[in-house]
Amino acid sequence: MAESVGKIKCPFSGCAEVAELKTDKRGKYFITCPVHGRMPFNTNKAQAEIQKLIEAGEASENVGGVVVGLEPEKPESEKVDIPEKVDIPENEKGKGGIVFIAIGFLIGLGSWLWKKAN
Questions:
Q1: What tens digit of pLDDT does each residue of 16-38 get?
Q2: Helix locations, the chain, DSSP H
Q3: Please, which contacts does 52-58 make with residues 24 or more away whose CB atoms are closer than 8 Å?
């Protein structure tokens, strides 16, 4: 699962987009640009260069007057608790099930009739 490390200016020449710096499940860095997509930086040399940018603080750029850099980690008090289970009211449960079953039945019946006619 990819983990976001922060934001960085896209490394492509002439691209002014703000890209997201992430790590993959092996801990390797990659950059995702909204225009150019994912850039993996597979070699050890490329990984070392990204690490140097992070350590030197050069990962932050002033893009269009907005300073973009590594996002600071949020303190425990600012983290949001996400509930594991959401309670659905009783009158909302099972409303869509019958409709989808009926649509599936009609599609199946229609394809069977079509096949029978041809």
A1: 888 888 888 888 888 888 888 88
A2: 44-56, 95-117
A3: 53/8, 54/5, 54/21
